[in-house]
Every structure is written in C-alpha cells, then in structure tokens.
Design brief:
The chain has 693 residues and is an alpha+beta fold. The chain has three domains: 4-119 and 157-301 and 515-543, no CATH class; 313-506, no CATH class; 578-682, no CATH class. It is built from 19 helices and 30 strands. The two termini are 39 Å apart.
C-alpha cells in the first residue's frame, strides 16, 4: 500500500476570494505540511502592477490571511503567499506586509521567522537586454519600446528556487512578490524530494483552490496528498464538492495554451502520459506526469511583465431606447449588441449586459458592495455551469467606477455582460445565491449600501463610452464630444451616468522572456529575513536564491506546442445522419486568457462517445476553427485533442492585448458563444483517426 509522504492545503484561488473557515478546519484533520495561497495574478490587467493597488477588498484579504495564519499556528506548518497584493510588485508586496503585521499582532504571533522575496527588476536592466535583442516574445505583442520600458513598473515571475531557499532557511511565513502560481506549491514538494513532474502538476491543480472541483469555485479549499508510489490524490474538504477525473483533468488544461505542455522557468511539464484515476467517489488522483529539464528547446527563462500609465480615463454609461440602437456606430460598445465581443450578436444569439450599481453614504461602502457583488457574480459555481472560467465579461480594469451622485450620496458602477445561454437559464437563481453569500459572509456590506443589478439587452441597450488621454483638458473635451455625438442620436434614458472619472488607464508594455541567467541568478528575487513579534518585525539578514537543475534529461518526445496532439483535417466519409447541440454533448465549454496575448477554449465532453463524435465531425481542425471564431487561420495557435479527459482545446492569438483601451472582456471568460452554439454533425462510421494524425 502506498505511503503518504506529503499533504498540502490550498486555501483558495486567490487571497481575497474568501473561503469557508469550516473547510479549512476540516482540511486540517490529518497531516499538514504546508498551507498555501496564490495571492494575485496579472489577469485583471496592468493597472494593479502600475499603481501598486490591490484588486480585492482589504478586509477580505485580511480575513483570508488571518484564517491561514491561525491554521499555521495550529499545525506548525509554513504559510506561503505569492504574487502578494495582486500584481506582486514592490508596492503590492508592501501593502500585503502591512495587512500581515496587523494579523500577527491580533493573533499574538511570536518569534516567527519571516521571508520576503521581491520580484522587481530595474527597467534599465531590461532596456539593456532589449538593445542586445535578448528578450524573447511569448506571442503577439506588446511591441517593445525603450521609452515605454523606462516608464514601466517591471516584475519577473519567480520559479521554485527563491521559495525553496526561504524554506530551507527555516522561514515559517513567506511573502513572495510576483511568482509563478504553480511554483508556490511545487517548491516545498521538490525540496522534500518529490518528483518534479508530480509536484508541478499538483501545483497547477491547486493554484485555483476548489475551482478544480465539481461544482468548482475559487472561494473554497482543496487538499492534495502525495504518496511514495509517485501518485497524488485531490480531495475537497467541503462535502458538497467532489474531485472527479473529469474535473481534475479539465482543470489541468486551465489557462494554458496547450493541453499537455506547460512551460516554467526551470523546464516543461509534460502531461501526454498522465493518468487520472478515482480511488473513491469524492477524490481523484494523478500519476505519470513528467518534468523535462530546461535546455533546448526551452532554456532557463523568467517571464517579465511591465506596466505603464497611458493617462486618465473618463467613462459614460448611456441607456438608450431600442429604436435608437441602429443609429449607434457599429464600432462602439453597446450592451445588447456587441458589449461582450466586438462581433455583434447574430441570429438567435442573445447578449445581456449586467450593470452592478451601488449607493451609500461613503465611497468606501459603495465600492465594497459593488466589488463583492461583481466577484461573486463572476465566479459563482452554479449547478450545470459550462463556462467555468467566469460567468461575465467586464471591459474595464479596474472594473469599478466610483462617483458622487446628484443626490449627494456616493455611487459605484461595474459594467459587465454575458452571452452564455446556460447563465441566462440560471440568472435568477444566481442572483439570489450571490446575495445570500454576501449576507452570510459580509452582512455589514449590505447594511451600509444599497444595490441594483440592472439588465441591458437588445430591448434596453446601454452604450459604454471610454476616453483616455494624458492631458486633462484634452481628455475632458474629447469625452464631451463623444457623449454629445451619441446623445444627439439617442437621448439618454433614466439610469444613465455621464462624464464619470474612472481610474487611470494602464497598458502592458512588456510580456517577454528574460533568458540571461546571470541577471536571473545574481540580480533577481533577493530574499530578506525578519524576526516577527506581532507587528514588530526586525530585519535579520538577506540571501540570494540557490539554484540547481531539476527534471529529466535526454527527453526524446515531442515538445513542440504547435504540433503535439494537433487535430488533423480528416473529412468524414458519407453524409451525417443527424446533428446534436454541442451544449448537450459537453460538460465544460469555456474561454479564458492564457496570458495577456492568447485566448484558449476548452471543450470537455460528457463521454468518450460524444468526444469521438465531435472529432469525427471534422469541425475542430485549425482552418475550420478559424471560420467558426471569425479569425484568420494564422491567429489559430492550434486545435488539440486531449484523450485523457475527452476534451478539445483551441488556442488563438488574442485580438487585442488584454485590458487594452478597446477591451470588452478583461479575463477572456465570455468569448465562447460561437462554440456554444455549434451543432455537431453525427457520422455513424468509426472514428477516422483524426486524433492520431
């Protein structure tokens, strides 16, 4: 019988999402080797790196971290955070440290060794690499510009070695700047001798908390147990959630542009031989994942992210009469027409704009409730959900606009939208459930502010105008002219908000790989150590990360992410004998950003028969996918078969860089409607080896 060698808890998908304290306490029943949470991401846009602001509410972050520290005190295990303060820059990290000091003081943390790992990189160093031609693009854009880089805040995404070094020093609490999500979990496992293949795969599943469960949510805990036979088993402490082979395999695809290859600073996680198994009805295991050491074709590298300010931004949300919709220029964002995608709705497609609006006596109260409503609406895991990457698309980063109302109170609005027919069918239940969750977890937020969820559709359209300029006077004039051009065509209806000052606009200036090992190993990720007595932290020293090679060498398999598991163009013989809705054949149909410059689509089928029928239809090879998604074939990175979980993955170059001025869906979580609407022609003869060519 296999022996348990490691047990780790992922508290939630990101610090601030919230998680039931009861789930964490249940997870602590048994051996605990580490308590870990990703604390941020670049998904929400460049604003958070550029400004140093946090995406989540401070009290939500503090509550989550307090629960983690309580668990660490109870078990004696290390507590690890990465990408602190959302973007992981120096100011983000400092913000998280202030929260942590409050928690330490309130819980009476004594004589604790703390490690703080910074991830910032001097723009001058990056410019030097640019001049050498040594920055490697990760896909389409952003275009590199020396002046823009010098104006940018730049971070590197650390791998396992800085974290391992801090753990080996005896640190009980680790606060990392920008970090690879998976490295947060893989580092301690590798330090303890666990195979890197299983360690990285476990980390990939855990980094979103219980999102890998059925039903999935980032607002709950997930536990992984690693055994001495090279396997790992996942289980949800919440009895209402299960880990199934499909949910774990499907999450193994999540936010990655290839289904079997994932690229990290130290090498490549290869999952083409991975097995998924179910030891019981509520847990699922993995085995046979492999990790290939850095080298050709993937040398040692660190992903760099840079953010720069574009200027101030003004926003107007103009509700108009349905009769006036044809007068509005086609390129403008209008909920009910093209608010979620630049392509207007067609045929039977429906688009729903969801405008979250709050009102309160203070701006903080209005903003808090609007943020909570938005976060829960985006991620609420309702039964039957197929778009598991997010329920709604929002066009702004930050997504919230705060303002002073004409009645003297303060208001906040968050525009968003969806084209998901499954969401429409469950909308009323979702709203009720979201309010119930906030009532239970944040009752003071509802007590201090009022709210409305305003629907906008083809019968009640809403125009969103956004103007950016670095000159205040020019910005005011340009936005006023844009508002005037619309209101001349379509008189504003009740509920419109004109000329609001939104948060400043930022853009990604850098999303490239640094491959200079001397810079990586000698300049990046310095570690500072502190001795903590409550909120009094005394610095004890500094250290450089210690590096070593990991993973297998001499690998002779396919590591090309544009050819491995590519679906072939294999026309079926004979005519189809019918057609089925893809919605009836798949348990997951989702889209999601895979970085700032790619979108990836995952279709996970109900059964092997449905999966083979879809492959047999010949709808999913590269050229066909390009037509379905209305993109040039050159923008399709690949369309891949995934036999391990009866799934198809499609990856394309994003039509714009995430959170650009013309953005409609910052997370890329509502771009799958054309795929959802597919009818699959059913052919009777055996599979024509489309998944084997």
């Amino acid at each position: 019988m296999a022996k348990l060698v490691y047990r780790v808890v992922s508290a939630c998908g990101a610090l601030g999402y919230g998680f039931p304290r009861e789930s964490l306490q249940k997870a602590l029943e048994g051996r605990i080797d580490a308590i870990i949470s990703d604390a941020g991401s670049m998904d929400a846009g460049p604003y958070y790196l550029g400004t140093g602001n946090e995406y989540f509410e401070r009290e939500a972050v503090k509550a989550d971290y307090r629960h983690m520290v309580e668990a660490g005190l109870q078990t004696g295990s290390p507590v690890i955070l990465g990408s602190c303060g959302m973007a992981g820059g120096r100011r983000n990290l400092d913000w998280m440290l202030e929260v942590a000091k409050e928690v330490f003081a309130e819980l009476g943390v004594k004589d604790a060794k703390v490690a703080v790992i910074h991830s910032d990189l001097d723009p001058g160093v990056v410019v030097d690499e640019l001049r050498k031609g040594a920055l490697l693009a990760t896909g389409a854009g952003p275009e590199l510009d020396e002046a823009a880089l010098r104006e940018s805040v730049i971070v590197g995404q650390m791998g396992i070695h800085p974290l391992i070094t801090a753990l080996e020093s005896g640190a009980r609490y680790i606060f990392a700047g920008r970090a690879c999500d998976i490295a947060l979990f893989a580092s301690d496992m590798i330090r303890r001798g666990i195979d890197p293949g299983i360690a990285y795969h476990v980390g990939h599943v855990l980094e979103c908390g219980a999102l890998a469960c059925d039903p999935g949510t980032p607002s709950d805990c997930l536990v992984a147990e690693v055994f001495d036979d090279g396997s790992a088993v996942f289980a949800a402490p919440d009895p209402n959630r299960r880990c199934t082979p499909y949910s774990i395999a499907a999450h193994s695809l999540y936010e990655e542009s290839h289904p079997q290859l994932q690229f990290y600073p130290e090498g490549i996680l290869v999952m083409d031989k991975t097995e998924f198994f179910a030891p019981d009805a509520r847990s699922t295991g993995i085995r046979n994942s492999r990790f290939v050491r850095a080298g050709k074709p993937w040398p040692w590298s660190i992903k760099l992210e840079g953010s720069r300010r574009l200027g101030a931004r003004k926003v107007s949300l103009i509700h108009i009469a349905a009769a006036d919709l044809p007068k509005i220029p086609a390129e403008l964002l209008v909920y009910g027409r093209n608010g979620v995608q630049a392509r207007a709705v067609e045929g039977d497609e429906r688009e729903l704009g969801i405008i979250v609006e709050t009102r309160a006596k203070t701006p903080e109260a209005a903003e808090t409730l609007a943020s909570l409503l938005t976060h829960y609406l985006i991620h609420y895991g309702y039964p039957g959900r197929k778009a598991t990457a997010g329920n709604i698309a929002y066009p702004l980063s930050p997504n919230l606009v705060s303002f002073r109302r004409e009645d003297g109170l303060y208001g906040a609005i968050v525009p968003s939208g969806t084209r998901d027919p499954v969401f429409f069918a469950n909308y009323e239940k979702i709203k009720s459930a979201v309010i119930g969750l906030i009532e239970a977890q944040f009752p003071e937020a509802l007590a201090q502010a009022d709210y409305q969820l305003i629907d906008a559709d083809a019968e009640h359209p809403a125009v969103l105008l956004r103007t950016i300029d670095s000159d205040p006077d020019r910005l005011a004039a340009h936005h006023a002219a844009e508002v005037d051009a619309i209101t001349r065509l379509a008189p504003p209806q009740p509920g419109s908000h004109l000329n609001l000052d939104a948060a400043d606009a930022y853009a990604w200036s850098l999303y490239h790989l640094l491959q200079n090992e001397e810079v990586i190993k000698k300049l990046m990720f310095p570690i500072s150590y502190y001795r903590a007595e409550g909120d009094q932290w005394v610095k004890e020293g500094e250290e450089r990360p210690r590096y070593f090679d990991i993973g297998i060498t001499g690998y002779d398999g396919n590591l090309d992410d544009r050819t491995l598991s590519l679906i072939a163009d294999a026309p079926p013989r004979g005519e189809p004998h019918g057609s089925r809705r893809l919605l009836d054949m798949a348990v997951v149909i989702r889209s999601k950003d895979a970085g700032i410059n790619r979108l990836t689509f995952d279709i996970v089928f109900n059964s092997a028969a449905d999966y083979e029928a879809a492959l047999r239809s010949n709808l999913f090879h590269k050229e066909s996918v390009a037509k379905i998604l209305h993109v040039d074939a050159e923008r399709v990175v690949g369309s891949f078969f995934v036999d391990s979980c009866n799934a198809i993955k499609i990856s394309i170059d994003r039509p714009n860089i995430s959170a650009s001025a013309d953005e409609r869906d910052v997370f890329g979580a509502q771009q799958q409607s054309k795929i959802e609407g597919l009818g699959i022609p059913v052919h009777a003869h055996p599979l024509s080896s489309a998944s084997a060519l």
